[in-house]
Amino acid sequence: TKIYTLARRVPVSAMLGLSEDIAVVIDEKGKILPVNEPYLSLCRVPDSEIIGANPAQKDLPLLSDPEVLAAVRADEDINGIVRSVTLPGEGHIRHFRIRIVPTVLEGGKTGTTVIGADITREEELIQNAGVAEIRSRQTLDMMPVPVCHLSSDLVITSANHAFCEIFSGPKDSVIGRPFP
Fold it and tell me: With the C-alpha atoms ordered 18, 19, 22, 24, is the resulting torsion angle positive or negative?
């Protein structure tokens, strides 16, 4: 069974104004058409310096990344994530997940919309979790009491030095064994 719904055309300019993500429309010749306010804030330049520019010829945040440019030119990965792009900034690094969306422009011309979601917070949380896990493992390894982690089927996935001494074996031989 297929479900059909009525579709209404929404002007690209209206969509740009609604999005908190970065959004830039590029025509079939590679020239930038409208951009939204979040992208202008990222660039810190007026739209007059961006509109009409070609990202391959002007150094623009996110858009001038070689993989993003290649995806825009190839019209590939329809609605797919092209990649995460890292953007060095003043004092910190920002991370974006970029999507390339083929777009039909006025008069039936083709173009591409580049949408960039700021995923900096998520990336920082992942990095912090990794650091916390390393510290936790180091602390557990130094503890004088035996400690081990078990999988759901009671197989030893990690163990500290004290645990390995009690079960008389090097760490490599203890890990992966069923819990006694």
Answer: negative
If phi over 0 gives left and psi between -120 and 50 gives alpha, with beta otherwise, what is residue 75? Answer: left
Pair 135, 123: CB distance under 8 Å: no
Average pLDDT score, the chain: 81
How many residues are listed for the chain in this entry?
180
pLDDT tens digits, 134-149? 888 788 788 888 888 8
- Write down the pLDDT at residue 10: 63
Question: Residue 108 carries which side chain, given as an amino acid letter?
Answer: G
Among 8, 44, 18, CA closest to 115: 18
Residue 76 has pLDDT above 60, yes or no: no
Extract the tokens encoding 144: 């004088």
- Range with the poorest average pLDDT among 31-35, 85-89, 102-106, 159-163: 85-89
User: What is the pTM (predicted TM-score) of this model?
Assistant: 0.64
Which tokens in the block code for residue 155?
């197989």
Query: Which amino acid is located at 134 in the chain?
Result: I
- 100 burial (CB, 10 Å; 0-12 / 13-18 / 19+) is buried
Angle 19-20-21 (CA atoms, 0-180°, nearest 5)?
90
The contacts of residue 62 (CB under 8 Å, 6+ apart) are: 22, 42, 68, 85, 87, 96, 98, 114, 116
